[in-house]
Amino acid sequence: MKLVIAIIKPFKLDDVREALTQLGIQGLTVSEVRGFGRQKGQTEIYRGAEYHVSFVAKIKIEIAIREELVPEVVEAIMQAARTGRIGDGKIMVTPLEQIVRIRTGEIGEGAL
Ligand SMILES: Nc1ncnc2c1ncn2[C@@H]1O[C@H](COP(=O)(O)OP(=O)(O)OP(=O)(O)O)[C@@H](O)[C@H]1O
Ligand SMILES: [Mg+2]
Smallest Cα–Cα separation from 88: which of 7, 15, 13, 31? Predict the structure, then answer.
């Protein structure tokens, strides 16, 4: 199992949700987050050459999936979230050791 974490532009959330539900994923978690990337959140030059690091509002999506689904999930998020402009976000994939479905006590892939 893998945990896919995507940081996207907030106005892209509906497009990404739609793309992911079309893939038949069983659930996802969304959070409002703030962050910065290579441009350090800057929208303008601050006092000449000085950088002013600031945070930009983003949405974080977390999806626990079977490993085989990773390529299509990543592709779907990429297609749906891309504008081609800076700040489109990142997709991270990390191993998921265990998942427990609290109501039934199922563990592992059966709990996804
Ligand atoms: N290395 C990182 N670690 C953790 N979060 C990151 C990292 N890079 C970016 N993020 C998160 O992703 C958001 C969007 O990043 P962003 O798309 O601006 O990355 P970038 O590398 O600057 O790419 P681009 O040049 O296309 O803007 C950031 O606001 C931050 O929340
Ligand atoms: Mg950036």
Answer: 7
Residues 37-69 have pLDDT tens digits of: 987 776 655 555 556 678 899 999 999 999 999
Q: Is the pTM of this model over 0.90?
A: yes
Q: Give CA 86 to chain center in angstroms.
A: 16
The CA distance from 22 to 44, in Å, is: 39
Mutation to probe ligand 1, out of 12, 13, 32, 36 (largest number of atoms < 8 A from CB): 36
Backbone phi, psi, residue 8, to 5°: -130, 170
The closest-lying atom of ligand 1 relative to the alpha carbon of residue 90 is 12
Q: Which residues line ligand 1 (CB under 6 A)?
A: 7, 35-39, 56, 58, 86-90
Ligand 1 atom closest to the Cα of residue 86 is 27
- Condensed to tens digits (0 to 9), the pLDDT of residues 84-110 reads 999 999 999 999 999 999 999 999 999
